Amino acid sequence: MADSPRSSGPTTSPFSGTEVSGRGVLDPKVAERLSHLSLTASRVVEGFLTGRHRSPHRGVSVEFVERRPYVQGDDLRHLDWKAYARTRRLSIKRYEEETNLDCTFIVDASGSMGYTRGDGPSKYDYACQMATCLAHLVLRERDGAALALFDQVLDRVLPASTSPGHLQPIMQSLVERRPDGETDLGATLGRMTERIPRPGLVVLISDLFGDLERFAEGLGKLCARNHDIIVLHVMHADELEFPFDRMTRFEGLEDDSRLLVDAASLRESYLSIIETWRADVRRACHVRGVDYHLISTATPLDVSLSAYLGARAARLGRAR
Length: 320
What we know:
Layout: E1 8-9, H1 28-33, E2 53-69, H2 81-87, E3 91-99, E4 102-108, H3 123-140, E5 144-150, E6 154-161, H4 167-176, H5 185-195, E7 201-206, H6 212-224, E8 228-235, H7 237-241, E9 247-252, E10 258-262, H8 263-286, E11 291-296, H9 301-319
Parallel strand pairs: 4-5, 4-7, 7-8, 8-11
Antiparallel strand pairs: 1-9, 2-3, 5-6, 9-10
Helix pairs in contact: 3-4, 5-6, 6-8
């Protein structure tokens, strides 16, 4: 797999770290439009409170699963006496616990996420709003929300909590962090594998700029821990459409590189490279059973999340 292209901006609007008003603050209108949606894990997950998500732990709980023959040493309290009256055979009732979900949001805060042009949000601003909205949904369902920001290293790691008040420190961590530094997706995902104590939902929000093979290795490590993984691939509309049509100087956001080019003459080859790279990203996710979704910052946030979560809920419903 080839390395990803690097994002940069024209000199007419270079990245200046402009902070868009309301970064990380939940828009009530967005929350209202998303109120009928929720995140649901597609795999068996573990937890510690009775909730909406299935757990592999067995015990007395709300949902009957099956009977099995009694063997010496089984807890007599779980004997099915009604079945014994019919069959004269001892059997044990087995139940499936319902437990709540821990959802870990891993948000890319590297330099390339700071790209913006005009009055629109930067990729990082958009990612902050997205993480905030999703954390709101998770906490509303009394599930646990955790947060980790990263560039080359992990930063501002908040452990999972089910408290509704946990949304405030999540938002504060997002707002206080400014996009900076180089990206190291592989190392980040590897470190998160050790930090997440039990299988749950992991949501990566990133532009995914970096070495794709290391990214794929990191995904593999998380998958090996039986996490349900969502990759929300955030890209600026400029990166997807390349609207530049004159001599433009592009500046690296994670290094000191500069490149003055006739943008119009490069557009076709650039778009071809981007599409090939995106295909590699999708493939890396697909072969590992990771849920991948591309999101453009040009699309209103509530539209993006409503479309994605609605499609995910329908897909998981068909799978059951």
